[in-house]
Amino acid sequence: MEQGKKRYSKRTVLRLGRYMLQYKWLLAFAVVCTLGSNLFSLIGPKLTGLCIGAVEPGPGAVNFSEVFYYAAWMAGFYVASAVMSYGLQVLMLTISRKVVYRMRQDVFEKLMSLPVGYFDVHQTGDIISRISYDIDTVNASLSNDLVQLLTTIITVVGALVMMITISPKLVLVFAFTVPLSILITKYITGRTRPLFRERSAKLGEMNGFVEEMITGQKTLKAYGREEYTLRRFNGKNKEAVDAYYRAEYYGSIVGPCVNFINNLSLSLISVFGALLYLAGSMRIGDISSFVLYSRKFSGPINEAANIFSELQSALAAAERVFRLIDEAPEPADAEGAQELVEAIGDVKVEHVSFGYTPDKTIIHDLSFEAKPGKLIAIVGPTGAGKTTLINLLMRFYDPNSGRILVDEKETAYLTRKSLRKAYAMVLQDTWLFYGSIYENLAYGKEGASREEVEAAAKAARIHSFIKRLPQGYDTILTDEGTNISKGQKQLLTIARAMLLDARMLILDEATSNVDTRTERQIQKAMLKLMEGKTCFVIAHRLSTIENADLIMVVNDGEVVEQGTHKELMERQGVYRRLYNAQFE
Amino acid sequence: MKQIILRYISPYYKRMGMGFLIKFFGTIMDLCIPYILAYIIDTVIPMRNRNMVLFWGLLMLICSGVAVSFNIIANRMASKVSSDATEVIRHDLFSKIMYLSNAQTDYFTKPSLISRMTSDTYNLHQMFGRIQRLGVRAPILLIGGICVTFTLDAAMACVLLATLPLLGFITVYVSRRSIPMYAGLQEANDRFVRMVREDIAGIRVIKALSKTEYETEKFRDINKEVVERERKNGMVMAVINPSMNILLNLGLVGVILVGAYRVNAGTSEVGKILAFTTYFTIILNAMLSISKMFTVLSKAIASGDRIWQVLECGDDMQVIETSVMRTSEMEIASSKEGSDTGEKRTEQAEEQSEERKEEQNKAQKEAPIEETICFDHVTFSYLKGGEANIRDLSFCINKGETLGIIGEIGSGKSTIVNLMMRMYDVDQGCVRISGKDVRSYQPKALKAKFGVVFQNDTIFEDTIAGNVTLGRELSEEEIQEALLYARASEFVENRADKASEALNIKGANLSGGQKQRVLIARAMAAKPEILILDDSSSALDYRTDAQLRRGIKEHFPDTTLVMIAQRVSSIRNADHILVLEDGVPIGYGTHEELMDNCEVYSEISKMQTGESM
User: Fold this and answer.
1) Please, are residues A52 and A71 in contact by the beta-carbon 8 Å criterion?
2) Rounded to 5 degrees, what are φ and ψ at A373?
3) Residue B430, beta-bridge partner list
4) For residue B158, what are the contacts with CB-CB under 8 A and spacing of at least 6?
5) What ipTM does this complex have?
6) Which of A217, B10, B537, B577 could bridge across to B404 with cysteines, CB 3.0–4.6 Å?
7) Domains in chain A, number
8) What tens digit of pLDDT does each residue of B22-34 get?
9) Same domain, residue pair A417 and A285
């Protein structure tokens, strides 16, 4: 298990690397900058030491030319180092933004190519958190941690080398403090990691509770459950706050401990340095340089632990992103698939069986034919069955066995795009996007003229409403759609469908959000929309489909009866019972 | 923000003071160490006394030990204080949100309340901790560091001091510039998320219309914009660190130069220059953490203000003793909507309150005892000053009767329920339940009379039984009875864990009809005096719907029933049917009466039963 996990993250690292390597020249430049900026700043303390060394002779004997010489070099190196470090940050920002852009684009393109069923089983919030937060995490880590890691290595190695050149004996101090600091950080992170995990879990729990309760606030108020909910919240709040405190209780040790070890090294260096000076094997300037290097040396070692844990969370995020990118897309169109051009609308379903999962067949051996211009109605209680049929017709899914033909051509050998274009569709869930009314209506027909759009809106009886809006057709529909009612939204989607010139039409509870009177008013429009088209209608109100050419009754996902209204009424079955219930 | 600190932090002043004191000494110890180093080099070494070197070395160790333990203690105290304070803030905020009136919830919007409750309180928590930990340490290190350098050598310290205003200027300038950039980025990000959310919701339409390529292009634009803004923002912020480094390091060079002259003149010693270099690192780090604190602080201030906006909300639905509404409440309610309309409304309210008083007194005397729900010339609108959502509505329902409400979408059906339960206060007229003005009830007592299913009501992540009780004390029998009468038993019994079956968030593992039946069971479980079903049987097939209605009549004969429906069949047997259009009652009577005298009603009815098809 552990092994498998490791291999998995290795693959993730490689894939991330591939994203980065697309910008290898920028990346190489960034490495040069990192090296330069760090090496330059490493030289600083050495020069400081030399400078102080030149001052050392004391009153009246200071070697000013040397002091100025080294001071000028110091200034030069520090400025160069800072400039390079700014350049490095700009480079890393550029690279990481490019990587983020590429990854987001990849995720979005994948989203567009996934089968629709993916969105039925995956939470929108989860997908959004992958495309935004997870990618951000990856990117923050790429731009910061990598530079940090490189900096750490260069600084530690560089500082060590410099210190050895100054005084190999004094370096022995670190033989004591470095293992100590590793031990302490290891101990602390070992203690705190589960605590931090618990902290996020508890916080997530509390946030989830808050979200649910605020969403249901009206209900809770209606039942007078405010106090009860508050009591439950207090429990969650206490847990979250306590978990936070427990994590901090140990987490807050880190800073002082790091400081302690630094102070410890400094004390030891001072004492031993002084002793060495007394023994005549070290100069004052050397002690100064050594002290500065020792600060550079021990800082990053303690940082390393942090960087690794951040890298780990970045890898976890990258894995979530890659898992989405790796989802199987809709199967490609069959080889040599034909375009469906100018369909007549003759739909035949032959012995189709289908289930979303292999173990649960939803449609058993279904056969029927819809001649051009006929009306097929699908009725039955709410459940999966009715919508499944639509999914198969539009090829959002392919049947497990059997086949569907349009104009005598098997749909499996048609391109999905051309097949879907042959259908117009009005669904129960109205979908409008943030944009003007005109854009929303013309969505299905590129380059539709203003007149065409207005004609469709008139036919759908929504034109006069749009005209009354202050900005008319240019009114922006906001996401909450607060400026427009559910029924009006539905009318807009009907108008959108009117603009398409498709031979087949799917109405999935299209008028369920429109009240009966409006429904009646748009009846003519609907009839016009349906005119000459092969129509598949899902409906609750049986009155609307009595004159259908074929009625299919779906129950528990199976087609239990089919026939015309008259035939079904005579059969005394489910349909008749449903029908009569209207008048009870 | 100031108010939050006053209210929630002041109780901890003592503990915080203790923490600060401990932290102060710990930090002073940190500062002592380089001081001792300078002393060793300048004073002890020339004495050529090994024991003295060891003695001062030991002193450095002791200082380090004291520093580490004091800092840890102080940090833990700080964590405790910030956790305790956050707990109280969250508690108060959540409690406030639970008791907000619906008008106030509408004003803030739920997503905003949720984010105030989650991310804003989190920001505050982080800030409290960090300010206590670094807020003392960094300034002490900075000021202490500067002070010590002054005692070491005033002239050299002045060079160092000269760089500080420049540093401060850069920090302030950069953060000033980045704040509006950050706001722009946030906006672009919102648009980005909205587009993804939208496309996921409309994936079927997008695919059906073969618009995936178009959407991908659209996404490319927004993606580019977000990325570009992020980059620009980052570039500005990236200026801080390198420029601080340059300034401080150049300051160091200056110190050495000045030091060289002073040593040469005999007014200073080499060891002091050495100590200076160490203090430099300390001061540099302190400056960096102070600049980091600025970002945390500005984020937390924004969060604190957002939290305070909710906390300072007044109670706009006070219980009034007489049934007369005082103008002061109107003021509170209207002040939320913006001050300019507020004034106008108060004047209006004053004029109206007089007539209302008379009307109400009259109405109350006439009211018969058994009347359960009575609307008396009620006018109401959600947007104050906007078009009325309910206009001059009057009706009375007696105990045990059924009221059916039918009408177009947006005609005000659900508004009637909201007013009945005093989710909102009427603008004119009054609503009486059991003969008393709803505004004179204690909220709890009023709510206890009702069992209600709202349109699109909430299923919580709990068991089926938990969803029925909602934490009310109901016996097992009562739960089973409610499930039975709501016709939910049929499917509950088929579940593996029966009524203890856990439901997912929003009841995702139930079908639409099953959800509605659980909700109806919830409404019936406590045997309410008034049962309200707002479009809550729409997902049931006609047969189940009919059985349900029969069950209610049979088992709850004394319960007054209010049914809102789109289907005539659901309400045709009601004792009274109210037909609404644009908030105005256009028909009131029994099914038969309305068929004769209400054109709209008979039209709807004929259409639904198929007579006109």
Assistant:
1) no
2) 80, 0
3) B376
4) none
5) 0.78
6) B577
7) 2
8) 988 888 888 888 7
9) no
Confidence bin at A242 (pLDDT 50/70/90): very high
Residues belonging to chain A: 584
Strand pairing partners for B379? B428
- In angstroms, the CA B359 to CA B1 distance is 46
For the stretch B549-559, pLDDT in tens is 888 888 888 89
| Residue A108, pLDDT score | 92
DSSP A334-390: PTTPBP--S----EEEEEEEE-SBTTB--EEEEEEEE-TT-EEEEE-SSSSHHHHHH
Nearest CA in chain B to A104: B223
Which of A118, A223, A289, A340 is most worth mutating to test chain B (most B CB atoms within 10 A of its CB)?
A223
Q: Of the given ranges (A74-83, A259-268, B194-203, B535-544), which has the lowest mean pLDDT? A: B535-544
Q: Is the pLDDT of residue B593 over 80?
A: yes
Q: Are residues A135 and A260 in the same domain?
A: yes
What average pLDDT score do residues B205-219 get?
A: 86
Distance CA A72, CA A228 (A): 72
- Is A320 in the same domain as A396? no
Q: Are A524 and A554 a contacting pair, CB within 8 Å?
A: no
Asked if residue A189 belongs to a domain, the reply is yes
pLDDT one-digit tens code per residue, A180-208 = 888 887 787 778 778 877 887 788 788 88
What's the gap in Å between the CA of B100 and the closest CA on chain A? 9
A425 → closest Cβ in B208, B270, B505: B208
Q: Are residues A309 and A381 in the same domain?
A: no
- Using a 10 angstrom Cβ sphere, with 0-12 exposed, 13-18 middle and 19 or more buried, the burial of residue B519 is buried
Interface contact flag, A112 B212, Cβ < 8 Å: yes
pLDDT top residue among A127 and A473:
A473
| pLDDT over 80 at B546, yes or no | yes
Do A148 and A67 lie in a common domain?
yes
8-state DSSP, A430: -
Domain end (from A325, A356, A385):
A325
Residues of A within 8 A of B191 (CB-CB) are 434
Chain B residue closest to A293 (CA)? B278
Domain boundary among A260, A290, A325: A325
If pLDDT is split at 50, 70 and 90, which confidence band does A107 have? very high
- The tokens for A445 are 């027909």
Range of the domain at A193: 2-325
Please name the residue of chain B whose CA is at the shortest distance from the CA of residue A478: B194
* Tokens encoding B11: 């109780």
Which residues in chain A have their CB less than 8 angstroms from residue B249's CB?
A: 44, 74-75, 78, 82
Instruction: Find where tokens 């005579």 sit.
Output: A570
**CA nearest to B47 within chain A:** A278
Q: Which residues of A306-322 are buried (b: 16+ CB within 10 A; e: fewer)?
A: ebeebbeebbebbbbbb
Q: In terms of domains, do A448 and A558 share one?
A: yes
| Confidence tier at A512 by pLDDT (50, 70, 90) | low
For B369, phi and psi rounded to 5 degrees?
A: -65, -40
A245 and A363 assigned to the same domain? no
Contact between A224 and B45 using a beta-carbon 8 Å cutoff: no
Give the pLDDT score at B612: 39
Q: Is there a domain that residue A14 lies in? A: yes
Interhelix angle B339-366/B327-335, rounded to 10 degrees, is 140
CB A216 within 8 A of CB B460: yes
Distance CA B216, CA B222 (A): 10
Question: Which chain A residues have a beta carbon less than 8 Å from that of B260?
Answer: 51, 54-55, 62, 64, 67
Say if residues A415 and A340 touch (Cβ distance below 8 Å). yes
Q: Please, which residues bridge with residue A401 across strands? A: A353
Residue A2 has pLDDT above 70, yes or no: no
Do A316 and A375 belong to one domain?
no
The tally of CA atoms less than 13 A away on the side-chain side of residue A260 is: 19
Q: CA B200 to CA B580: how far, in whole Å? A: 36
Q: Whole-angstrom Cα distance, residue B22 to residue A480?
A: 53
